[in-house]
Write a structure and sequence with these properties.
DNA polymerase, domain 1; Rossmann fold; alpha/beta; elongated; about 45% helix; 6-stranded parallel sheet; about 230 residues; homodimer; 2 domains
Chain lengths: ~230, ~230
């Protein structure tokens, strides 16, 4: 009898390695830079507004975030942002793109334990170029049968990826820190959806856990995954 | 006997639809915006320097180009670029990302003629998000068995794509306007490389045609492709 589970998909940012804390650190620098021009307590919300407004044009990732910071700086200074501020924002964006990848606890060990028994897939959104760099730097690339960098995480995308690289969504599991992007659409596609919460999750990725979803699970730590997968089959 | 040719890969920008002319138009706006601060004849070279410097961090695409324009504006004004200039650059970048896709002559007809006989692949680099938008808007998506948006076009990438979606590079052909990205690395991977020159090609994509390469061809128009493919087999 074939295994109930053939493929396991992993989100990358804040599931396998730290990401959101780098955005928060950069946001803190941004607030500091503009503290003479606007109430620091308002700035994160102004920046988030710009990010939301630009999402349909820029998609996800550091370059779009950098452009949204520059736009917000112009807004809050009414076009009078001094050059050194814009330059500091450009520098901060480039530093994010050069920032070393820091794995989350248990990531490498868990993938190593699972890699012999299941086909592992990395399924992430964001800047193609930057995500490829992070996969390479993470040292985790060897555990994955395929790396799929996608522009949005929809049920149709999960169905396609799990069909292309596995035995279809019904025999697949998706693991990630975002209920909205990793868990709910995977369950809607017919897969198992496993929430691995991270203490920092971007506002736009937050939502309620699913109700009456027999294929929904939550784990506190990545190293719970091998037992969970074995239980399913 | 199987066909000698199983798959045909197409570059997208300036092979199937216009792209470079939008970059040139935006560059012209950029030069105009900064004409009080620097000799307009020097500005394109200054911008190109920034693009080259940033390529390893930003990769290809409109968002990186926008960030390089802002950086160059700060440079040539010695940090005194007025807010309206930075804002105009942000606007110009966003307009590029919303610009309608204009097909090159013969693109749709040629793909339609080839689609029955060969597996057609779209292989392009650039911003994932923006390229997916352009594929959708182009109306050409239905002709392709697969769309691969890659961060670099190397022989290894061509070998992987033609193996995944075809019968390997030896039975594949790559068609594009860039000798450097579309033709030479495909030939190095063992495929046919067909150059379809475009009147505008970005400086960083230019190079000499290959010598002693029996699998190199050049066409003046896309609609020469079906005969060329039939000749190969």
């Amino acid at each position: 009898m074939p295994r109930a589970l053939a493929a396991i998909g992993f989100d990358a940012d804040d599931t396998l390695w730290h990401n959101e804390r780098l955005f928060r650190m950069t946001e803190a620098r941004f607030v500091e830079l503009l503290s003479d021009y606007a109430d620091p307590r308002d700035l994160p919300a102004r920046l988030l507004e710009a990010e939301k407004r630009n999402l349909a044009r820029y998609g996800y990732g550091v370059k779009g975030f950098t452009l949204s910071m520059i736009e917000t700086a112009l807004e809050v200074t009414e076009g009078r942002a001094p050059g050194y501020i814009v330059r500091a924002i450009l520098d901060a964006g480039r530093e994010m793109l050069a920032h070393p990848v820091r794995l989350l606890p248990g990531a490498a060990e868990t993938l190593e334990r699972l890699a012999g028994d299941y086909r592992l897939l990395l399924i992430t959104k964001g800047d193609l170029f930057d995500q490829e760099r992070k996969v390479a730097q993470s040292g985790l690339g060897e555990f994955f049968s395929a790396v799929e960098i996608v522009s949005e995480k929809t049920p149709a995308i999960y169905a396609r990826v799990f069909t292309r690289h596995g035995e279809g969504p019904a025999r697949a599991m998706m693991v990630g820190n975002s209920l909205k992007s990793d868990v709910l659409p995977a369950i809607e596609a017919g897969a198992w959806g496993v929430h691995a919460p991270h203490e920092l999750t971007w506002t736009l990725e937050r939502c309620e856990p699913p109700k009456d979803a027999p294929r929904y699970r939550e784990i506190a730590r990545l190293d719970e995954l091998p037992d969970l997968a074995a239980e399913i089959g």
